Amino acid sequence: MSAKAIDKMMTGVLYLIAGIIVLLLAGLLGYILVQGLPHVSWHFLTSPAKSFEAGGGIGIQLFNSFYLLLLSMVISVPLALGAGIYLAEYAKKNWLTDVVRTAIEILSSLPSVVVGLFGFLVFVLQFKFGFSILSGALALTMFNLPLLTRNVEDSLRQVGFTQREAGLALGLSRWETVVHVVIPEALPGILTGMILGAGRVFGEAAALIYTAGQSAPALNFADWNPLHIASPLNPFRPAETLAVHIWKINSEGIQPDAAAVSAGASAVLILAVLAFNLLARWGGNRLYKRMTAG
């Protein structure tokens, strides 16, 4: 066979493999959405869950998921920015830096259940935070921080060195060059990585079972004082998230409509994760076009 024929054949094989993967993914997502969307309604999204009766919703679990996500990103984003800037702009090339990067690679590949057990031993037991939103947020920080740090470092390294030289030639200090030249240029990639990281932790369950807990006590949405026990903003209350709720229903749910609640909650979770991914692509592309146009 000629080289051109072999090239066409292998290209066709690659397209076939890609098509099979896309069909499997579309089939899985389509099955979840077809089974779950008929059960999704405003009442379902806003009403609290019920343990022994039919007609419960996911309102508290949905709020817990977004609140825990917000708290974990507030903790992890500044740390990831600082670590990524240091590794990309200031860290010297030596064995210590190589060890740090290797540690980041190892931590980013840890199973989430291992992170959850670590959070249970350290935050729940050692620090005595108990099963709480704060314990879950810290565990998610440990889970997400290596990936965010790597994303920030890679985004900064993709900025050309000539732009750094231009900033220094204008009389800017090294830090001013990083802040006013390098970071704005790398911002689309950093923003995309942050949103994708948020979507990743939004659907996390294993790490939160051992840290945030498996209960969703009733909340008083008229009381936003974080010091009150029934306040939605209290970081020391247990908080069952949407992903944990799905796992709990499928493992030990005894309500009559457990299958419908599980299907509806799964559809909502899938749509939320898809929204995070689409927002990352749209936001990154839009920000990049605005910066290149300016």
Automatic annotation (TrEMBL):
**Which spans are transmembrane here?**
12-34, 66-87, 99-123, 129-148, 258-280
Q: Which InterPro entries would you find in this protein's record? A: MetI-like, MetI-like_sf, Phosphate_PstA
Q: How does it sit in the membrane?
A: Multi-pass membrane protein
Listed CDD domains? TM_PBP2
- Keyword Hydrolase on entry: no
Sorted alphabetically, the keyword list is: Cell membrane, Membrane, Transmembrane, Transmembrane helix, Transport
Q: Which SUPFAM superfamilies match?
A: MetI-like (SSF161098)
Which PROSITE patterns does the record match to this protein? ABC_TM1 (PS50928)
Superkingdom field: Bacteria
According to its UniProt record, where is this protein located?
Cell membrane
Q: Has the keyword Magnesium been applied to this entry?
A: no
This protein's major location comes to membrane
Domain (ABC transmembrane type-1): give its ranges.
Answer: 62-280
Pfam families assigned? BPD_transp_1 (PF00528)
According to its UniProt record, which protein family does this protein belong to?
Belongs to the binding-protein-dependent transport system permease family. CysTW subfamily.
Which NCBIfam families did the record assign?
3a0107s02c
Q: What is this protein called?
A: Phosphate transport system permease protein PstA
